[in-house]
Amino acid sequence: MCSMWVRRVGRRIGLSTARRLKARGRTSTRVGTSGSVPVAGSRTSLGISIRIEGLDRTIKNLEDLKKSLPDKVDKKLQMAVFELEGEIKATAPVRTGRYRAAWVSTKLGKLKYAISNNVEYAKYLIYGTSKMPVKHDVRGIVERWRGRIKRMLKTIK
């Protein structure tokens, strides 16, 4: 048995009653598995008006944020890199001071930095050898700083 809903009454009615209501021009909708579908020939239209205030201002603010956010992120990242470089230097083993003094940070591009050391024996101190243990755990320091940098970047407003 086919049944229909009458929107005004909101109760289920038989097909013959629905045909009579349709003939009189009353609104009714057919209920199917995919939801409500307006019955053909319905004389009532549904008018919806949506008014959004301040949309222009919001769009402008988002565009300003889009322009300024990379610069803010770059500044925070630069600060983090300088602090990381300072911690690497502070924990570096010192005999002559050449290894500690050779640590430099370089900006490679937008949001890209490198901290490096060009002393020829730096790789032995950082990675060790089969007979010599690691003397300066730079990888561990960088790994600890990852979380700090993420937290710093989350504070950007």
Automatic annotation (TrEMBL):
Pfam families recorded: HK97-gp10_like
Matching InterPro entries: HK97-gp10_tail
Name of protein: Phage protein, HK97 gp10 family
Organism: Ferroglobus placidus (strain DSM 10642 / AEDII12DO)
